[in-house]
Amino acid sequence: MHDGSHQQITDLKQAAEHIRTARRILVIGCSGGGKSTLSLEIARRFGLSYISLDRDVYWLPGWVTRDRVEQRMIIATRILEERWIMDGTNPSSLDIRLPRTDFVVWVRMQRLVCMWGAISRWPKWIGRTRPEMAPGCIEKIDLEFLRFIWTFEEKLAPRLVAGIAEHGPDVPVLELKSRAQMRELLDLLGPPD
């Protein structure tokens, strides 16, 4: 147990075993850390349906935010599915997401890594929409987004820790803190079938 708040998994081999057998996985963490890339990769390898909070719940075309009540209804419906990987951090829905989750991967990279991740993908997607985003949400970077990344650890991380402790104290959590760890985990998971 990690300071009594949640079941911390530190051994990557053990984490890989959890992922192999999990039916429902939650991937949380700061933008730019590599959540979506990792989620899509795991979804592909294990035939889990990929649910992106950004694409499927939060955003409507043209960066319009969907109504909160509707957001919650979509999440409540999607979590009832048998097998999924859900890519998205939003602490306010942890109360309904965690009880349905077998395993949590917290992509917890240093903020400079996240900043670089977000900034370096931008030129690749200029004028286009990333596959994990809602249609018509053309890739953009603004100060608000960079500030969100910069302050993520101080503002959102404590809410995530508290949310996990309250709503998923028995759900094992793996924190990935470097690109090397992420690569190692993917290697341990083996090639896609």
TrEMBL record:
Family matches, as SUPFAM superfamilies: P-loop containing nucleoside triphosphate hydrolases (SSF52540)
Q: Which InterPro entries does the entry mention?
A: Cytidylate_Kinase-2, P-loop_NTPase
Quick one: signal sequence residues? Answer: none
Q: What is this protein called?
A: AAA family ATPase
Q: Which organism is it from?
A: Rhizobium croatiense
